[in-house]
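Appendix B, example 12.
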Amino acid sequence: MQKVAIITGASRGIGRACAAMLARCGIKVIANYNKSENEANNLKEELTRENIEIDIFKADVSKREEVKQMVEFALNKYGKVDILVNNAGISQTKLFTDITDEDWQNMINTNLSSAFYMIQEVLPSMIHEKNGSIINISSVWGINGGSCEVHYSAAKAGMIGMTKALAKELGPSNIRVNAIAPGIIDTDMNKGYSEQEIKEIKEEIPLGRIGEPEDVAKCVKWLVEDDYTTGQVISINGGWLI
């Protein structure tokens, strides 16, 4: 029986690359989006031209009720959810003293609470099947912390703590929980860097280049296929963090 995956924030960047790669491997993918409807439709059309079926589903994953609706859609259509990739997220650069209560709550809700909601909603299916792979997309800043990105770093560090704790709790049910902590990846989230800043970052990376979304997607694919890796934080960063 084909595996079923939900990928949040799947219309662009890392999420899009993951959705396309898993769908091309024969996995039934529900690609979540919130605001980027055109990009989500473009993904669906691209895969349809390759005779690959993919579902796109609009949901604000920072809201429990919308998460419930998306998981119910997956269960009603496919009967189970085998794979969850928590990728949806936002970024913001601000001095710590300038972060407002609204900034903080928006960051935590979108980058951390969304993963909490998604995991809770898919778990009954995974526990019933005695099988599952949960992959949380964190960040290098969740490991090292990023100056002027304290709220982002805190949310991404929270994902890492959640990953390790859940791996212990869910292991007896044969559910694997891992995190990927990408470095600088060529996505819209990092378009704020100037050419000079990108040049300087490349000089700090042993492999001498910025990562591509597909670099992360390959790791997601491996974690889906592997059945003895859990509780790990894999940083795809070209050697930037050693």
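The chain has a mean pLDDT of 96. Residues 87 and 110 are 10 Å apart (CA to CA).
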